[in-house]
Amino acid sequence: MNFVEVFGTTASVVIAISLTMKNLKRLRVLNAVGALGFTVYGLLIGSLPVWILNGFIVVIDIVFLWKMYASKDRFDVIESDPYASPFVALFLGHHKDDIKRYQPEFSLEPGKGWQTEFILRDLNPVSIVIYRRTDPATVEIGLDYAVPSYRDFQSAEYYFRKSAERIAAGKELTFIQRTRVPEHQRYLERIGFQRGADGPDGTAEFRKTVTGGVRG
What distance in Å separates the CA atoms of residue 113 and residue 91, rounded to the nearest whole number? Predict the structure, then answer.
């Protein structure tokens, strides 16, 4: 297999991988990269149909990506009782395997004082935060979960910019979450949580302070 064939095969693999992406933005980005590679491949082998078709796909992906990044999604929050709301039970049940994968520590035990907030994105329930106050200045997050197709950090950034500040009500409030899953740890660091000490089982504590519009 010569260089041109390797290049074309690589481009086709990238396109195939893009079709497995659940996140639409990642799908479009990876698909555009693969199609661009196939456009170059078509030029290298002198195949007009190959490079024209894939060049057109690149343009389509770029247009859709531009629309995605240019559009302003509407975010809303709905509070609910996690023990009384049938939708909370349905949501948690539907995503239980994915939740267990990323946040296996979560357990919605009755009588623990948990509260629930759904983050809606263009009226679609895309993420859920289940939390409780452990004291007037501290909130423990039991679950912070986003559905796979909306894991682009926008819901989390909205929540900790708006909703968490509302919970703080102008006072200094520290949000705490504990996890031993590396992917979830990276997510918490990405949205501004500070890592604390690790427990004996490898569970790390992460903290984020919100104070009436100032986050740290």
Answer: 19
